[in-house]
Protein backbone atom coordinates (compact mmCIF):
# COMPACT_ATOMS: atom_id res chain seq x y z
CA UNK A 1 0.00 0.00 0.00
CA UNK A 2 1.37 3.41 -0.95
CA UNK A 3 1.05 6.17 1.59
CA UNK A 4 0.36 9.57 0.14
CA UNK A 5 2.67 12.36 1.20
CA UNK A 6 0.89 15.13 3.14
CA UNK A 7 0.46 18.30 1.18
CA UNK A 8 2.45 21.32 2.37
CA UNK A 9 0.40 23.95 4.14
CA UNK A 10 -1.07 26.62 1.92
CA UNK A 11 0.47 30.11 2.12
CA UNK A 12 -2.60 31.40 3.95
CA UNK A 13 -2.46 28.53 6.45
CA UNK A 14 1.26 28.95 7.15
CA UNK A 15 0.80 32.70 7.49
CA UNK A 16 -1.47 32.10 10.48
CA UNK A 17 0.53 29.28 12.06
CA UNK A 18 2.07 30.20 15.43
CA UNK A 19 5.83 29.95 15.56
CA UNK A 20 5.51 27.56 18.49
CA UNK A 21 3.95 25.00 16.14
CA UNK A 22 6.79 25.50 13.67
CA UNK A 23 9.43 25.04 16.38
CA UNK A 24 7.79 21.85 17.67
CA UNK A 25 7.55 20.46 14.12
CA UNK A 26 11.27 21.01 13.65
CA UNK A 27 11.96 18.90 16.74
CA UNK A 28 12.27 20.05 20.32
CA UNK A 29 14.44 18.24 22.86
CA UNK A 30 15.83 18.50 26.35
CA UNK A 31 18.77 20.68 25.29
CA UNK A 32 16.41 23.20 23.67
CA UNK A 33 14.27 23.23 26.81
CA UNK A 34 17.33 23.87 28.98
CA UNK A 35 18.44 26.79 26.81
CA UNK A 36 14.93 28.22 26.74
CA UNK A 37 14.75 27.87 30.52
CA UNK A 38 17.92 29.92 30.97
CA UNK A 39 16.72 32.54 28.50
CA UNK A 40 13.28 32.70 30.11
CA UNK A 41 14.76 33.18 33.58
CA UNK A 42 17.08 35.92 32.28
CA UNK A 43 14.21 37.80 30.68
CA UNK A 44 12.01 37.38 33.77
CA UNK A 45 14.71 38.94 35.94
CA UNK A 46 14.76 41.95 33.59
CA UNK A 47 10.97 42.10 33.30
CA UNK A 48 10.21 41.93 37.04
CA UNK A 49 11.27 45.46 38.07
CA UNK A 50 10.50 46.91 34.66
CA UNK A 51 6.88 45.71 34.61
CA UNK A 52 6.20 47.24 38.03
CA UNK A 53 7.97 50.49 37.11
CA UNK A 54 5.98 50.89 33.89
CA UNK A 55 2.72 50.19 35.67
CA UNK A 56 3.41 52.75 38.39
CA UNK A 57 4.47 55.35 35.81
CA UNK A 58 1.24 54.60 33.90
CA UNK A 59 -0.88 55.52 36.90
CA UNK A 60 -1.92 52.02 38.00
CA UNK A 61 -0.74 49.66 40.71
CA UNK A 62 2.49 47.65 40.22
CA UNK A 63 0.57 44.37 40.40
CA UNK A 64 -1.19 45.24 37.15
CA UNK A 65 2.14 45.45 35.38
CA UNK A 66 2.87 41.92 36.59
CA UNK A 67 -0.58 40.69 35.48
CA UNK A 68 0.11 42.16 32.05
CA UNK A 69 3.55 40.59 31.77
CA UNK A 70 2.41 37.17 33.01
CA UNK A 71 -0.84 36.71 31.08
CA UNK A 72 0.01 38.82 28.04
CA UNK A 73 3.59 37.58 27.82
CA UNK A 74 2.48 33.94 27.94
CA UNK A 75 -0.15 34.37 25.20
CA UNK A 76 2.17 36.37 22.92
CA UNK A 77 4.74 33.56 22.99
CA UNK A 78 2.12 30.80 22.77
CA UNK A 79 0.37 32.19 19.68
CA UNK A 80 2.81 34.70 18.18
CA UNK A 81 4.30 34.84 14.72
CA UNK A 82 7.80 35.60 16.04
CA UNK A 83 10.11 33.02 17.56
CA UNK A 84 11.64 35.36 20.09
CA UNK A 85 9.05 38.05 20.82
CA UNK A 86 8.56 38.87 24.50
CA UNK A 87 5.26 40.55 25.27
CA UNK A 88 4.37 42.70 28.24
CA UNK A 89 3.89 46.30 29.35
CA UNK A 90 6.04 48.75 27.39
CA UNK A 91 7.40 52.19 28.17
CA UNK A 92 5.95 53.51 24.92
CA UNK A 93 2.46 53.16 26.41
CA UNK A 94 3.10 55.07 29.63
CA UNK A 95 1.73 58.38 28.36
CA UNK A 96 -1.32 56.87 26.68
CA UNK A 97 -2.18 54.60 29.58
CA UNK A 98 -1.83 57.33 32.21
CA UNK A 99 -3.96 59.69 30.11
CA UNK A 100 -6.58 56.96 29.61
CA UNK A 101 -6.73 56.28 33.36
CA UNK A 102 -7.12 59.98 34.07
CA UNK A 103 -9.92 60.30 31.52
CA UNK A 104 -11.86 57.04 31.96
CA UNK A 105 -10.62 55.44 35.18
CA UNK A 106 -9.19 51.97 35.64
CA UNK A 107 -12.34 50.28 34.31
CA UNK A 108 -12.09 52.38 31.14
CA UNK A 109 -8.44 51.38 30.71
CA UNK A 110 -9.29 47.67 31.00
CA UNK A 111 -12.18 48.04 28.54
CA UNK A 112 -9.99 49.96 26.07
CA UNK A 113 -7.35 47.24 26.33
CA UNK A 114 -9.96 44.56 25.58
CA UNK A 115 -11.32 46.52 22.58
CA UNK A 116 -7.79 47.07 21.34
CA UNK A 117 -7.29 43.31 21.40
CA UNK A 118 -10.33 42.85 19.17
CA UNK A 119 -9.00 45.48 16.77
CA UNK A 120 -5.56 43.89 16.60
CA UNK A 121 -7.12 40.53 15.79
CA UNK A 122 -9.08 42.25 13.03
CA UNK A 123 -5.92 43.87 11.61
CA UNK A 124 -4.19 40.51 11.51
CA UNK A 125 -7.18 38.70 10.03
CA UNK A 126 -7.36 41.32 7.26
CA UNK A 127 -3.63 40.79 6.59
CA UNK A 128 -2.75 44.41 7.31
CA UNK A 129 0.38 43.51 9.26
CA UNK A 130 2.52 43.75 6.14
CA UNK A 131 1.48 47.35 5.57
CA UNK A 132 1.84 48.53 9.16
CA UNK A 133 5.58 47.87 8.87
CA UNK A 134 5.85 50.39 6.03
CA UNK A 135 6.51 53.33 8.30
CA UNK A 136 9.22 55.80 7.28
CA UNK A 137 12.37 55.48 9.33
CA UNK A 138 12.40 59.17 10.40
CA UNK A 139 8.90 58.65 11.84
CA UNK A 140 9.97 55.70 13.99
CA UNK A 141 13.09 57.49 15.23
CA UNK A 142 11.22 60.72 16.00
CA UNK A 143 8.40 58.81 17.65
CA UNK A 144 10.75 56.75 19.82
CA UNK A 145 12.80 59.80 20.83
CA UNK A 146 9.62 61.69 21.72
CA UNK A 147 8.42 58.84 23.93
CA UNK A 148 11.82 58.74 25.63
CA UNK A 149 11.55 62.44 26.50
CA UNK A 150 8.03 61.96 27.88
CA UNK A 151 9.07 58.96 30.00
CA UNK A 152 12.05 60.88 31.36
CA UNK A 153 9.88 63.85 32.28
CA UNK A 154 7.28 61.61 33.92
CA UNK A 155 9.86 60.13 36.32
CA UNK A 156 11.48 63.34 37.57
CA UNK A 157 9.11 63.82 40.49
CA UNK A 158 9.79 60.32 41.90
CA UNK A 159 13.50 60.52 41.05
CA UNK A 160 13.93 63.73 43.04
CA UNK A 161 11.29 62.86 45.65
CA UNK A 162 9.30 66.03 44.91
CA UNK A 163 6.00 66.71 46.64
CA UNK A 164 3.62 68.42 44.24
CA UNK A 165 0.75 70.47 45.64
CA UNK A 166 -1.74 69.01 43.14
CA UNK A 167 -2.02 66.32 40.46
CA UNK A 168 0.97 66.18 38.14
CA UNK A 169 0.02 67.67 34.74
CA UNK A 170 0.13 65.37 31.74
CA UNK A 171 1.36 67.96 29.22
CA UNK A 172 5.11 68.35 29.34
CA UNK A 173 5.37 72.15 29.66
CA UNK A 174 2.90 72.43 32.57
CA UNK A 175 4.58 69.37 34.08
CA UNK A 176 8.00 71.03 34.04
CA UNK A 177 6.50 74.18 35.53
CA UNK A 178 4.87 72.19 38.35
CA UNK A 179 8.09 70.31 39.07
CA UNK A 180 10.04 73.54 39.23
CA UNK A 181 7.57 75.05 41.66
CA UNK A 182 8.00 71.98 43.91
CA UNK A 183 11.82 72.10 43.83
CA UNK A 184 12.01 73.06 47.51
CA UNK A 185 10.59 69.65 48.48
CA UNK A 186 13.49 67.73 46.91
CA UNK A 187 14.41 64.63 48.95
CA UNK A 188 18.18 63.96 49.18
CA UNK A 189 17.49 60.32 50.08
CA UNK A 190 15.28 59.76 47.03
CA UNK A 191 17.79 61.51 44.77
CA UNK A 192 20.64 59.38 46.16
CA UNK A 193 18.71 56.14 45.61
CA UNK A 194 17.62 57.14 42.11
CA UNK A 195 21.08 58.30 41.05
CA UNK A 196 22.67 55.23 42.62
CA UNK A 197 20.30 52.97 40.71
CA UNK A 198 21.25 54.65 37.43
CA UNK A 199 24.95 54.41 38.27
CA UNK A 200 24.78 50.71 39.19
CA UNK A 201 22.81 49.77 36.06
CA UNK A 202 25.19 51.72 33.84
CA UNK A 203 28.30 50.35 35.54
CA UNK A 204 27.15 46.72 35.39
CA UNK A 205 26.25 47.11 31.74
CA UNK A 206 29.80 48.24 30.98
CA UNK A 207 31.73 45.92 33.29
CA UNK A 208 29.51 42.82 33.46
CA UNK A 209 27.01 43.06 30.58
CA UNK A 210 25.72 39.55 31.24
CA UNK A 211 24.57 40.36 34.77
CA UNK A 212 20.97 41.50 35.53
CA UNK A 213 21.86 45.10 36.28
CA UNK A 214 18.31 46.33 36.88
CA UNK A 215 17.48 43.63 39.40
CA UNK A 216 20.79 44.07 41.22
CA UNK A 217 20.33 47.84 41.41
CA UNK A 218 16.75 47.49 42.66
CA UNK A 219 17.81 44.92 45.25
CA UNK A 220 20.64 47.06 46.60
CA UNK A 221 18.47 50.19 46.70
CA UNK A 222 15.71 48.31 48.54
CA UNK A 223 18.14 46.84 51.07
CA UNK A 224 19.76 50.22 51.72
CA UNK A 225 16.42 51.96 52.16
CA UNK A 226 15.18 49.27 54.58
CA UNK A 227 18.36 48.96 56.66
CA UNK A 228 19.02 52.70 56.90
CA UNK A 229 15.35 53.56 57.36
CA UNK A 230 15.49 56.19 54.64
CA UNK A 231 12.43 58.47 54.41
CA UNK A 232 11.41 57.50 50.88
CA UNK A 233 8.21 56.17 49.34
CA UNK A 234 8.17 52.45 48.56
CA UNK A 235 5.77 50.18 46.69
CA UNK A 236 4.22 49.04 49.97
CA UNK A 237 3.84 52.54 51.44
CA UNK A 238 2.20 53.84 48.24
CA UNK A 239 0.25 50.82 46.99
CA UNK A 240 0.14 48.31 49.83
CA UNK A 241 1.36 44.71 49.72
CA UNK A 242 1.41 43.00 46.34
CA UNK A 243 -0.96 40.06 45.82
CA UNK A 244 0.57 36.59 45.70
CA UNK A 245 -1.01 35.41 42.50
CA UNK A 246 -3.32 36.28 39.65
CA UNK A 247 -6.85 37.49 40.36
CA UNK A 248 -9.98 35.75 39.17
CA UNK A 249 -10.66 36.60 35.50
CA UNK A 250 -13.66 38.74 34.69
CA UNK A 251 -15.13 40.49 31.66
CA UNK A 252 -14.97 44.29 31.59
CA UNK A 253 -18.18 46.28 31.65
CA UNK A 254 -19.62 46.91 28.19
CA UNK A 255 -22.18 49.64 28.75
CA UNK A 256 -22.61 51.84 25.68
CA UNK A 257 -21.35 55.08 27.33
CA UNK A 258 -18.25 53.26 28.60
CA UNK A 259 -17.55 51.80 25.16
CA UNK A 260 -17.83 55.23 23.54
CA UNK A 261 -15.46 56.71 26.12
CA UNK A 262 -12.92 53.88 25.74
CA UNK A 263 -13.05 53.58 21.95
CA UNK A 264 -10.66 56.47 21.05
CA UNK A 265 -8.11 55.11 23.53
CA UNK A 266 -8.52 51.61 22.08
CA UNK A 267 -7.74 52.94 18.61
CA UNK A 268 -4.58 54.63 19.91
CA UNK A 269 -3.55 51.46 21.77
CA UNK A 270 -4.11 49.43 18.60
CA UNK A 271 -2.07 51.70 16.37
CA UNK A 272 0.82 52.01 18.80
CA UNK A 273 0.70 48.34 19.78
CA UNK A 274 0.79 47.12 16.19
CA UNK A 275 3.72 49.37 15.33
CA UNK A 276 5.70 48.59 18.47
CA UNK A 277 5.13 44.83 18.21
CA UNK A 278 6.10 44.55 14.56
CA UNK A 279 9.16 46.76 15.05
CA UNK A 280 10.23 44.50 17.91
CA UNK A 281 9.70 41.44 15.70
CA UNK A 282 11.82 43.03 12.97
CA UNK A 283 14.60 43.67 15.50
CA UNK A 284 14.46 40.02 16.54
CA UNK A 285 14.63 38.97 12.87
CA UNK A 286 17.72 41.09 12.36
CA UNK A 287 19.44 39.56 15.40
CA UNK A 288 18.50 35.95 14.65
CA UNK A 289 18.27 35.76 10.86
CA UNK A 290 14.70 34.46 11.10
CA UNK A 291 11.50 35.80 9.54
CA UNK A 292 8.40 36.56 11.57
CA UNK A 293 4.78 36.30 10.44
CA UNK A 294 3.33 39.76 10.77
CA UNK A 295 -0.36 38.94 10.64
CA UNK A 296 -0.10 36.03 13.09
CA UNK A 297 1.83 38.31 15.40
CA UNK A 298 -0.98 40.87 15.34
CA UNK A 299 -3.56 38.18 16.08
CA UNK A 300 -1.46 36.98 19.02
CA UNK A 301 -1.06 40.52 20.33
CA UNK A 302 -4.83 40.93 20.12
CA UNK A 303 -5.51 37.73 22.07
CA UNK A 304 -2.87 38.76 24.62
CA UNK A 305 -4.50 42.16 25.17
CA UNK A 306 -7.90 40.55 25.65
CA UNK A 307 -6.40 38.00 28.04
CA UNK A 308 -4.57 40.65 30.04
CA UNK A 309 -7.76 42.72 30.32
CA UNK A 310 -9.65 39.71 31.70
CA UNK A 311 -7.14 39.56 34.58
CA UNK A 312 -7.08 43.31 35.21
CA UNK A 313 -3.97 44.06 33.16
CA UNK A 314 -3.47 46.72 30.52
CA UNK A 315 -1.84 47.11 27.11
CA UNK A 316 0.41 44.28 25.92
CA UNK A 317 2.91 44.74 23.13
CA UNK A 318 6.18 43.34 21.89
CA UNK A 319 9.02 44.81 23.94
CA UNK A 320 12.23 45.47 22.06
CA UNK A 321 14.64 45.41 25.03
CA UNK A 322 13.26 42.20 26.53
CA UNK A 323 13.01 40.55 23.11
CA UNK A 324 16.64 41.42 22.38
CA UNK A 325 17.62 40.05 25.81
CA UNK A 326 15.78 36.84 24.96
CA UNK A 327 17.73 36.40 21.72
CA UNK A 328 21.09 37.19 23.34
CA UNK A 329 20.34 34.76 26.19
CA UNK A 330 20.24 31.84 23.74
CA UNK A 331 16.51 31.31 23.26
CA UNK A 332 15.51 28.56 20.85
CA UNK A 333 11.95 29.72 20.36
CA UNK A 334 8.64 30.74 21.95
CA UNK A 335 9.01 28.36 24.91
CA UNK A 336 11.43 30.80 26.54
CA UNK A 337 8.78 33.54 26.44
CA UNK A 338 6.21 31.22 28.00
CA UNK A 339 8.69 30.24 30.71
CA UNK A 340 9.49 33.89 31.36
CA UNK A 341 5.81 34.43 32.19
CA UNK A 342 5.77 31.41 34.50
CA UNK A 343 8.92 32.59 36.26
CA UNK A 344 7.28 35.98 36.84
CA UNK A 345 4.26 34.23 38.33
CA UNK A 346 6.55 32.26 40.63
CA UNK A 347 8.35 35.44 41.71
CA UNK A 348 5.00 37.06 42.44
CA UNK A 349 3.79 34.11 44.52
CA UNK A 350 7.02 33.72 46.50
CA UNK A 351 8.55 37.20 46.76
CA UNK A 352 5.57 39.59 46.86
CA UNK A 353 6.36 40.87 50.40
CA UNK A 354 9.95 41.65 49.43
CA UNK A 355 8.81 43.68 46.42
CA UNK A 356 6.98 46.02 48.76
CA UNK A 357 10.33 47.38 50.00
CA UNK A 358 11.36 48.66 46.55
CA UNK A 359 11.78 52.48 46.63
CA UNK A 360 9.85 54.35 43.97
CA UNK A 361 12.93 56.51 43.36
CA UNK A 362 14.85 53.38 42.36
CA UNK A 363 12.10 52.38 39.91
CA UNK A 364 12.26 55.91 38.51
CA UNK A 365 15.99 55.41 38.00
CA UNK A 366 15.24 52.21 36.06
CA UNK A 367 12.86 54.06 33.75
CA UNK A 368 15.35 56.89 33.22
CA UNK A 369 17.83 54.31 31.95
CA UNK A 370 15.11 52.83 29.73
CA UNK A 371 14.30 56.27 28.33
CA UNK A 372 17.95 57.02 27.63
CA UNK A 373 18.38 53.73 25.80
CA UNK A 374 15.19 54.26 23.81
CA UNK A 375 16.19 57.62 22.43
CA UNK A 376 18.30 56.32 19.47
CA UNK A 377 20.48 59.41 19.73
CA UNK A 378 22.95 58.56 16.95
CA UNK A 379 20.14 57.79 14.51
CA UNK A 380 18.41 61.04 15.46
CA UNK A 381 21.45 63.22 14.74
CA UNK A 382 22.25 61.22 11.62
CA UNK A 383 18.79 61.91 10.16
CA UNK A 384 19.08 65.61 10.99
CA UNK A 385 22.21 65.72 8.83
CA UNK A 386 20.98 63.44 6.03
CA UNK A 387 18.50 65.63 4.12
CA UNK A 388 16.13 68.50 4.74
CA UNK A 389 13.11 66.31 3.96
CA UNK A 390 14.03 63.54 6.39
CA UNK A 391 14.97 66.10 9.05
CA UNK A 392 11.57 67.80 8.67
CA UNK A 393 9.68 64.51 9.06
CA UNK A 394 11.81 63.59 12.06
CA UNK A 395 11.37 66.91 13.86
CA UNK A 396 7.65 67.22 13.16
CA UNK A 397 7.04 63.71 14.50
CA UNK A 398 9.24 64.30 17.53
CA UNK A 399 7.70 67.65 18.45
CA UNK A 400 4.13 66.47 17.99
CA UNK A 401 4.75 63.41 20.16
CA UNK A 402 6.34 65.49 22.91
CA UNK A 403 4.03 68.50 22.89
CA UNK A 404 0.79 67.21 21.38
CA UNK A 405 -0.17 63.55 21.11
CA UNK A 406 1.41 60.20 20.25
CA UNK A 407 -1.18 59.23 17.64
CA UNK A 408 -1.11 62.68 16.07
CA UNK A 409 2.67 62.47 15.82
CA UNK A 410 2.55 59.10 14.06
CA UNK A 411 -0.25 60.06 11.65
CA UNK A 412 1.20 63.44 10.68
CA UNK A 413 4.74 62.05 10.45
CA UNK A 414 3.56 59.18 8.27
CA UNK A 415 1.66 61.60 6.01
CA UNK A 416 4.70 63.87 5.66
CA UNK A 417 6.91 60.86 4.96
CA UNK A 418 4.48 59.72 2.27
CA UNK A 419 4.47 63.17 0.66
CA UNK A 420 8.26 63.24 0.74
CA UNK A 421 8.39 59.86 -0.97
CA UNK A 422 5.92 60.96 -3.64
CA UNK A 423 7.97 64.12 -4.29
CA UNK A 424 11.19 62.15 -4.65
CA UNK A 425 9.61 59.55 -6.92
CA UNK A 426 8.04 62.23 -9.11
CA UNK A 427 11.40 63.96 -9.48
CA UNK A 428 13.00 60.67 -10.50
CA UNK A 429 10.48 60.11 -13.31
CA UNK A 430 11.09 61.78 -16.67
CA UNK A 431 10.20 61.57 -20.34
CA UNK A 432 12.98 61.49 -22.94
CA UNK A 433 11.75 62.69 -26.32
CA UNK A 434 13.42 62.83 -29.69
CA UNK A 435 13.11 61.95 -33.37
CA UNK A 436 14.59 58.78 -34.79
CA UNK A 437 16.30 58.74 -38.18
CA UNK A 438 16.13 55.61 -40.28
CA UNK A 439 19.58 54.52 -39.11
CA UNK A 440 18.51 54.51 -35.45
CA UNK A 441 16.84 51.10 -35.57
CA UNK A 442 18.49 49.66 -32.50
CA UNK A 443 16.66 50.40 -29.23
CA UNK A 444 19.98 50.99 -27.48
CA UNK A 445 20.96 53.57 -30.14
CA UNK A 446 18.07 55.84 -29.21
CA UNK A 447 19.37 59.30 -28.36
CA UNK A 448 16.65 61.86 -27.56
CA UNK A 449 19.15 64.70 -27.81
CA UNK A 450 19.83 63.90 -31.47
CA UNK A 451 16.67 65.22 -33.12
CA UNK A 452 15.68 65.66 -36.78
CA UNK A 453 12.55 66.35 -38.76
CA UNK A 454 11.51 62.71 -39.19
CA UNK A 455 7.97 61.41 -39.28
CA UNK A 456 8.30 59.24 -36.17
CA UNK A 457 8.70 60.54 -32.62
CA UNK A 458 9.78 58.26 -29.77
CA UNK A 459 9.03 58.95 -26.11
CA UNK A 460 10.80 56.87 -23.52
CA UNK A 461 9.29 57.14 -20.03
CA UNK A 462 11.75 56.43 -17.23
CA UNK A 463 10.77 55.73 -13.62
CA UNK A 464 7.45 55.11 -11.92
CA UNK A 465 4.63 56.67 -13.97
CA UNK A 466 2.13 57.34 -11.21
CA UNK A 467 -0.05 60.22 -10.04
CA UNK A 468 2.93 62.08 -8.58
CA UNK A 469 4.81 62.04 -11.90
CA UNK A 470 1.87 62.12 -14.31
CA UNK A 471 1.52 65.91 -14.20
CA UNK A 472 5.17 66.48 -15.14
CA UNK A 473 5.20 63.78 -17.81
CA UNK A 474 1.80 64.86 -19.12
CA UNK A 475 3.07 68.38 -19.74
CA UNK A 476 5.79 66.90 -21.95
CA UNK A 477 3.33 64.72 -23.83
CA UNK A 478 1.06 67.70 -24.43
CA UNK A 479 3.81 69.54 -26.30
CA UNK A 480 3.65 67.15 -29.22
CA UNK A 481 4.19 68.70 -32.64
CA UNK A 482 1.47 68.14 -35.24
CA UNK A 483 3.76 67.14 -38.11
CA UNK A 484 4.97 63.66 -37.08
CA UNK A 485 2.46 61.00 -38.11
CA UNK A 486 3.51 58.17 -35.78
CA UNK A 487 4.38 58.18 -32.11
CA UNK A 488 6.07 55.50 -30.04
CA UNK A 489 5.85 55.55 -26.24
CA UNK A 490 8.28 53.07 -24.69
CA UNK A 491 7.59 51.59 -21.22
CA UNK A 492 10.73 49.46 -20.92
CA UNK A 493 12.03 51.56 -18.01
CA UNK A 494 8.68 51.92 -16.23
CA UNK A 495 8.49 49.67 -13.14
CA UNK A 496 5.10 51.01 -12.04
CA UNK A 497 2.01 52.47 -13.68
CA UNK A 498 -1.15 53.56 -11.87
CA UNK A 499 -4.55 54.66 -13.11
CA UNK A 500 -3.50 58.33 -13.27
CA UNK A 501 -0.58 57.48 -15.52
CA UNK A 502 -2.80 55.26 -17.67
CA UNK A 503 -5.27 58.15 -17.98
CA UNK A 504 -2.47 60.43 -19.22
CA UNK A 505 -1.69 57.90 -21.95
CA UNK A 506 -5.40 57.71 -22.81
CA UNK A 507 -5.50 61.49 -23.28
CA UNK A 508 -2.50 61.21 -25.60
CA UNK A 509 -4.20 58.45 -27.58
CA UNK A 510 -7.35 60.56 -28.00
CA UNK A 511 -5.28 63.43 -29.33
CA UNK A 512 -3.55 61.09 -31.76
CA UNK A 513 -6.85 59.78 -33.10
CA UNK A 514 -8.25 63.28 -33.63
CA UNK A 515 -5.20 64.16 -35.72
CA UNK A 516 -5.31 60.95 -37.75
CA UNK A 517 -2.03 59.75 -36.27
CA UNK A 518 -1.01 56.39 -34.83
CA UNK A 519 0.20 55.68 -31.27
CA UNK A 520 2.46 52.70 -30.53
CA UNK A 521 3.14 51.45 -27.00
CA UNK A 522 6.25 49.32 -26.55
CA UNK A 523 7.97 47.46 -23.72
CA UNK A 524 4.80 47.08 -21.63
CA UNK A 525 4.77 44.36 -18.99
CA UNK A 526 1.68 42.23 -18.48
CA UNK A 527 0.59 44.29 -15.48
CA UNK A 528 1.10 47.63 -17.24
CA UNK A 529 -0.79 46.39 -20.29
CA UNK A 530 -3.64 45.21 -18.06
CA UNK A 531 -3.99 48.70 -16.59
CA UNK A 532 -3.85 50.34 -20.01
CA UNK A 533 -6.52 48.00 -21.38
CA UNK A 534 -8.69 48.68 -18.34
CA UNK A 535 -8.40 52.38 -19.18
CA UNK A 536 -9.84 51.62 -22.65
CA UNK A 537 -6.60 51.63 -24.66
CA UNK A 538 -7.44 48.79 -27.06
CA UNK A 539 -6.19 48.02 -30.54
CA UNK A 540 -6.42 49.28 -33.25
CA UNK A 541 -6.69 52.74 -31.65
CA UNK A 542 -3.41 51.92 -29.88
CA UNK A 543 -0.92 49.35 -31.16
CA UNK A 544 1.10 47.29 -28.66
CA UNK A 545 4.50 46.13 -29.86
CA UNK A 546 7.35 44.40 -28.04
CA UNK A 547 10.20 46.80 -28.90
CA UNK A 548 10.84 50.21 -30.40
CA UNK A 549 12.36 48.49 -33.45
CA UNK A 550 9.14 46.58 -34.12
CA UNK A 551 7.06 49.73 -33.79
CA UNK A 552 9.40 51.70 -36.08
CA UNK A 553 9.38 49.06 -38.80
CA UNK A 554 5.58 48.98 -38.87
CA UNK A 555 5.21 52.74 -38.65
CA UNK A 556 7.57 53.39 -41.55
CA UNK A 557 5.88 50.76 -43.65
CA UNK A 558 2.57 52.58 -43.22
CA UNK A 559 3.89 56.09 -43.84
Automatic annotation (TrEMBL):
SUPFAM superfamilies: SpoIIaa-like. It is a multi-pass membrane protein. The chain crosses the membrane at residues 38-59, 66-86, 92-122, 134-154, 184-204, 211-232, 262-286, 298-321, 341-371, 383-403, 409-426. It is found in: Membrane. The keyword Disulfide bond does not apply. It comes from the Bacteria. Keywords: Membrane, Transmembrane, Transmembrane helix. Residues 446-555 form the STAS domain. InterPro entries: SLC26A/SulP_dom, SLC26A/SulP_fam, STAS_dom, STAS_dom_sf. Pfam families: STAS, Sulfate_transp. Signal peptide: none annotated. Its main location: membrane. This is SulP family inorganic anion transporter. It comes from Plastorhodobacter daqingensis. The lineage of its organism: Bacteria, Pseudomonadati, Pseudomonadota, Alphaproteobacteria, Rhodobacterales.
